[in-house]
Amino acid sequence: MHSVLNNSDLNSAELSIETLIARLQREKSAREQAEELLENKSRSLYQANEALKKVAENLEGQRQQLNTILDHTVTGILLVNDRLNVVQSNKSANEMFGLMQDDLLDLNVLDLFERSKAIERLINIKLKSGSDDIQFEAVARLNGEGAFPAEVGISTIVKPDGRRAMVWIIHDITRRRRDEAKRKELEKELSQAQKLEALGTLASGVAHEINTPIQYVGDNMRFLGESLQEIVSLLELFQNNAGAEQIRSKTEEADIDFLLEEIPQAIEQSLKGLEQVAGIVKAIKEFSHPGQEGHANVDLNEVINTTLTVTRNQWKYVAEIDLELEENLSKIPCNKGDINQVLVNLIVNAADAIAECRNKDLGRIAIKTSEADGWLTIEVSDTGCGMPKDIQDRMFDPFFTTKDVGKGTGQGLAISYNIIRTKHKGEILCESQQGKGSRFIVKLPISPDTIGQLEVLR
């Protein structure tokens, strides 16, 4: 018995086959797309992997290059964590502190320096103030015995997790300190040479100043010697019981009334002359003495009077002195010899400026001292011929001078500038008007607080 397929069954079979074919085509297309996507992803991953390899190679090359640079630099470099423990160091740091690499494990960076508590306080103060860069000088310790001066710079790094790390950059400044000591010694010798040069220039005038009182002291001594002989002759007559007429005649001959009146005056005048000579000699001694190292409390008014004594013969023929010295002026920590030298330069320059352009009348040199806001001020002004603007800009340059050849070395104002600005942290300024005169203003701090010098580690 055979079954017969009608048209409906045939149509259903055809639809099933078409559905299967469509499904197969979709699956094939999906598979091809997946394979293409997988191929693209594989290619991308391969390219990314190759790129990462190149980045890794570059990073490794940079790391090796950085390590090479760090190990060959003469500066010691330490990487320090937030607990101040040394994490990494370069070769120079190890050699600088005499350390092996194993010595750095759990080493606190503060143990490498003297006065570590002061350094720690300084770092905390700077960090609290928001400063990321810290600089100071300290004494570093060698591993074992010995120490060396070091200049330290600290830069802070904030990591992604918020922790703070530090890079310590350390310079051994032993050679610089030695060079600075030599430079200071040379400056001291130059200053002393300039001082003696100025004293040599003043020598003839000082000799004249001493010669005048010495002359009248000598004249008075001769007068007293002759008078003493007359008095002794009269006393011998009394001792020999001479007659009244003989004594009266000798008294009139010796002019005893005149002697009794003149002898006390001659003695008083001689004592004043000797005091004047002693004052000049003392002033010269103070001026020419090299002076002690460091600073001592000094009365500026006394220094000014000493300087005027030494320089008197330089200014007395060309100018009169106007003094306006503030009473009860605070004593100032300074080098007396240095300040004395500055004043000599200013007063002699003022006298030379007046002599250069004065008429018959004497000029005027005014010296004033004052105190305000923690500063002592000395003003030295003159009625000389002043200076043009281009000279004012160069007046403190070494070896610059407006004087004729042989009359000036150009070192006076340059040395004065160095003494005031560098050695005493003060100011020296000049106001000058051509044809009317000049005024030099010297400002000196009474204490380190005046100039804001808080030297935590010195």
From TrEMBL:
Residues 10-69 form a coiled coil. One of its GO terms (molecular function) is kinase activity. Pfam families: HATPase_c, PAS. It catalyses: ATP + protein L-histidine = ADP + protein N-phospho-L-histidine. It is an enzyme of class 2 (transferase). InterPro entries: HATPase_C_sf (IPR036890), HATPase_dom (IPR003594), His_kinase_dom (IPR005467), PAS (IPR000014), PAS-like_dom_sf (IPR035965), PAS_fold (IPR013767), Sig_transdc_His_kin-like_C (IPR004358). SUPFAM superfamilies: ATPase domain of HSP90 chaperone/DNA topoisomerase II/histidine kinase, PYP-like sensor domain (PAS domain). Residues 62-113 form the PAS domain. This is histidine kinase. It comes from Hirschia litorea. The lineage of its organism: Bacteria, Pseudomonadati, Pseudomonadota, Alphaproteobacteria, Hyphomonadales.
